[in-house]
Design a protein that fits this description.
This protein has two domains: about 80 residues, Ribonuclease Z/Hydroxyacylglutathione hydrolase-like (Metallo-beta-lactamase, Chain A, 4-Layer Sandwich), CATH 3.60.15; about 30 residues, no CATH class. The protein is globular. The strands form two sheets. The chain has a five-stranded mixed sheet, with no helix packed on it. The protein has one helix and seven strands; from the N terminus they run E-E-E-H-E-E-E-E. By secondary structure, it is mainly beta. It is about 5% helix and about 25% strand.
Length: about 120
């Protein structure tokens, strides 16, 4: 597997002729200027993945326009207020409602995905 880091949380993974892009960022000049944040990463260019993953809706993670081609896009609804399980379920679900996942123990952030794992311990 080949892993390429573009900066911040943006990555490209290549393996077996397939490409996955994760959390692309776009033009961050306004954020950099307005908040005094140093942003020295070059623009993402030439990335045409098969799959694009957006882990959450912050501008430094969700710039799908920075990615070329026509990838399948999987976007998390974390932080958007969108219902977690459909229009009839609340955006927040307590850990007991997240079956078939089980808690790995307490963390500082109750909603952290890091605290969940499949019951058999496998990922993927």
């Amino acid at each position: 597997m080949r892993v390429e880091w573009f900066g911040q949380s943006a990555f490209r993974l290549d393996a077996d002729g397939k490409t996955v892009a994760i959390d692309p960022f776009g033009d961050m000049s306004a954020l950099s200027r307005d908040r005094g944040i140093q942003w020295d990463y070059p623009a993402i260019a030439g990335v045409e993945p098969d799959l694009l993953l957006v882990t959450h809706e912050h501008s430094d993670h969700n710039a799908v326009e920075a990615i070329g081609g026509k990838p399948a896009v999987l976007r998390s609804t974390a932080g958007t207020g969108a219902p977690a399980g459909g229009k009839d379920q609340p955006a927040y679900q307590p850990p007991a409602a997240r079956a078939p996942f089980k808690s790995l123990g307490p963390t500082p952030d109750e909603d952290s995905p890091a605290r969940l794992s499949p019951p058999d311990g496998r990922v993927g």
